[in-house]
Amino acid sequence: MVGNKFQLEDVIEAQQFDRETLNAIFEVAREMELVEKNTPGSQLLKGYLMATLFYEPSTRTRLSFESAMKRLGGEVLTTENAREFSSAAKGETLEDTIRTVEGYSDIIVMRHFESGAARRAATTASIPIINAGDGPGQHPTQALLDAYTIEREIGKLDGIKVGLVGDLAYGRTVRSLAHLLAKYHDVKIYFVSPDVVRMKNDIKDYLTSMGIEWEESADLMDVASKCDVIYQTRIQRERFGERIDLYEEARGKYIVNQDVFNVLQKHAVVMHPLPRLDEITVDVDKDPRAAYFRQAKNGLYIRMALLKLLLLGW
């Protein structure tokens, strides 16, 4: 496919990717590992400008994209907290902001507080849009780096058992990952969460329609002993509004600690999209099965791959 145009114009949601495209992106990500390790000062994207438009705070995702662009020789225009400091605060529509910013850049990476905002941006823009998270909607580049990490750590994506733990109602990372896992064969997903943040029916229905077996469980220890991957998430206080009582009730119910690691299989891994609060105790960080910082590093390679593909093609 080298030299061909990348088949996607934007990256908006996990459903866009079929297995073949995923495998090809993962191949490019592996090449990017070599680029990052061996050739400081790659000039692949020299002359290209990426704008980051973040209406919700983010350190990790924004830095990851900016690092990816700079490691490929590109330049970055950055805005964090666009919601408070930009024309949005004066009432400008998202569409007008996108039309303006695309005049200054070659690709836009956007995080927004409203589900569906990335699709609106992509409909408006004539340059590629990458969704870096839209409210409780999706976070497709996180799902890609998660799937890439599972493949690197476990060696396969078919025939795996995955436990999704924590905030499954508002956690866009787990929603997006469930969509990607549905592309693979013989996958089983366990949902472990407090009642107030259970996985929503749209994802359960989608998994059922794709022939993916899923099960809800209240027993983290039991699930941890069966799974290849435990994917822990933080309970997101910002999604609870005034209901601090519900937040406090949900938080701290499922903690991944040494007891959980003791029942994990030898080959299994624990993942987390980060940032973590106290839902994974720091004493397990040294265990080789704690994969979350390797997972974060993989985000750099996946985002380098996507920038290269969207701007230059295969």
UniProtKB/TrEMBL annotation:
Catalysed reaction, written as an equation: carbamoyl phosphate + L-aspartate = N-carbamoyl-L-aspartate + phosphate + H(+)
Domain Aspartate/ornithine carbamoyltransferase carbamoyl-P binding: 10-151
EC number(s) given by UniProt: 2.1.3.2
Biological or metabolic pathway of the protein: Pyrimidine metabolism; UMP biosynthesis via de novo pathway; (S)-dihydroorotate from bicarbonate: step 2/3
Pfam families named among the record's database cross-references: OTCace (PF00185), OTCace_N (PF02729)
Top-rank taxon: Eukaryota
Keywords from the named record: Pyrimidine biosynthesis, Transferase
Gene3D superfamilies assigned: Aspartate/ornithine carbamoyltransferase
Aspartate/ornithine carbamoyltransferase Asp/Orn-binding domain residues: 158-309
Function: Catalyzes the condensation of carbamoyl phosphate and aspartate to form carbamoyl aspartate and inorganic phosphate, the committed step in the de novo pyrimidine nucleotide biosynthesis pathway.
Subunit structure: Homotrimer.
Protein family (similarity comment): Belongs to the aspartate/ornithine carbamoyltransferase superfamily. ATCase family.
Record-given protein name: aspartate carbamoyltransferase
Annotated source species: Coffea arabica
Name of the encoding gene: LOC113690540
